Amino acid sequence: MDEIKKALSEADPFASWWPFILAGVVFVIGTVRTYMGGQPCPNGNTIPDRVIVVTGATGGIGREVCRELARRKAGCLVLACRSTEQGDALRELLRREAPDCTCEVQILDLRSFDSVRRFVRQVQTHHPTVDALVNCAGVIFQPGGHTVDGYEAHLQCNFLSHFLLTQLFRPQLNRSPHGGRVVNVSAHGYTAAKIVDREDPLNLRQLTTSGRDAFAHSKLAIVLGSRALARKLVAEGHQTTVNCCSPGLVRGTGHLRHSPIMKALFAKVLTFPWMWLFMKSPAQGAHTIVRLVTDPALASCNGDFFNDCERVEVSELAKDDELAERLYQAALSAVGLCETRENKHIKGKKE
Ligand SMILES: NC(=O)c1ccc[n+]([C@@H]2O[C@H](COP(=O)([O-])OP(=O)(O)OC[C@H]3O[C@@H](n4cnc5c(N)ncnc54)[C@H](OP(=O)(O)O)[C@@H]3O)[C@@H](O)[C@H]2O)c1
Asked: How far does residue 155's CA lie from ligand 1's centre (Å)?
C-alpha cells in the first residue's frame, strides 16, 4: 500500500500525453452522446385521472412512453397491441413500477379497419372520455404488400388506421375536461416523400417502388392529415388538439426488423458503435411524445410538429393547406367515413 501511495505521489502526469488524449476522447464521446440524445422533456408534472390510449405500446418507443406516463400517475393506460402476451408482460411491468396506474390490454391490428373499429368499441364501452390518444405504432420495410382492405401496408398501418382511430375517438376526446390531445408519431423521413399527383394525395394510383418511399409518404400523410384536422377542430370550437412529432433516430427498437440490410449480422455488428454513439435510446425517443401528452403549456398548441421537445417548422409541402385538405378528404373516403355538411360530425358512409 505504501508503495502504491509513493508511486502515486511521485507520478508525473505530464510525462505522457496519454491521460489527456484519453480524457479528451471520453469528453468528446460523452458530449456527442448527450447532444444526440436530444433535449429531455422540460416538464415533470403528473397527470392523474387521465385516460390515455397508446398504439404500438409494446414497441421500443411506445413502451417507454407508457412507462413514463405511468410514472406520472396517469389514471388509466389503454395498451393497444397485437399480441396479448406482450401486452400482459408490459401491464405486469407497469403494475410493478406504478401500482396506482390502471392498465388495460386491448388488441389492435392496424392492418385491418375492422380491427380498428372493434378496438374503439371495446374502449368506448369502458371509457366515455379519452384524454389523450398517442398514435405511436409504425412500420417500415413492411413485407406483405397490401392489407385486407386493399391499401399499401405502410399507408394503412402508419396513417389510414390511425386516422380512422382518431376520427372514431373524437367524441371521447372532445369530452376531456383537460382538452383532448392527439399525438401522431411521424418521422424526419417525411421530408423525402413525394406526392406526384395532387388529385391523388394518398398515392393510390402510384406504383410504389420501395418500402422507404412508402414509409416516407405515410409519414408525410400523418403531418398533412394532422394539419387539416387541427384546422377543423379549431373551426368547430373544440378543445381537442392534434400535433405530430418525430422521435428522432432511436436505437434498440424493432423498427428496422424488416430492413433487408439490418437483417444481416455483419450490418448489425458494423452499425452498433455508430448507433450507440449517434442515436437516442428508446427512453430519450419518448421524451417529445411525453411532453406533448403532459405539458400544460401546450394545451392550445395545435397542428404543429415537434422534434427534441421543441416546435419546429415543417417542409413547404407539409405546409400546403390545400393539399392537406385534399388528403384529409381522400383519407375520410378511404376509411369509409364522410363529413356532414355542417362539418361537425363524422359519420360512417353506410349510416
Ligand atoms: N426507431 C426510430 O429510429 C424511429 C425513427 C422515426 C420514427 N419512428 C417512429 O416511431 C414509432 C415507434 O417506433 P419504434 O422505433 O418503437 O418501433 P417498434 O419497436 O417496431 O415499435 C412499433 C410498434 O408498432 C406496432 N405495430 C406494428 N404493426 C402493427 C399493426 N399492424 N397493428 C398494431 N400495431 C402494430 C408494433 O407491434 P408488434 O410488436 O406487434 O409488431 C410495435 O409495438 C413508429 O411510428 C416509427 O415509425 C421511429
From this structure: 14
Residue 29 falls within a domain, yes or no? no
pLDDT band at 161 (very low <50, low <70, confident <90, very high): very high
- What is the chain's length? 351
pLDDT in tens, 198-212: 999 999 998 767 899
Residue 24 domain-assigned? no
- In this structure, the residue with its CA closest to atom 39 of ligand 1 is 59
Ligand 1 residue neighbourhood (C-beta within 6 Å):
56, 58-62, 81-83, 108-111, 136-139, 157, 185, 187, 246-247, 249-250, 253-255
CATH code of residue 101: 3.40.50.720
Structural domain boundaries enclosing 306: 34-337
Q: How many domains does the chain have?
A: 1
Show the beta-strand stretches assigned E in the chain. 51-55, 76-81, 102-107, 132-135, 181-185, 241-246, 305-307, 310-312, 337-339, 346-348
Give the distance (Å) from ligand 1 centre to CA of residue 94.
19
Cα(271) to ligand 1 centroid in Å equals 20
For 4-26, how does the pLDDT look when each residue is reduced to its tens digit (9 = 90+)? 888 777 777 677 888 889 999 99
pTM for the whole thing? Answer: 0.93
Q: Residue 15 falls within a domain, yes or no?
A: no
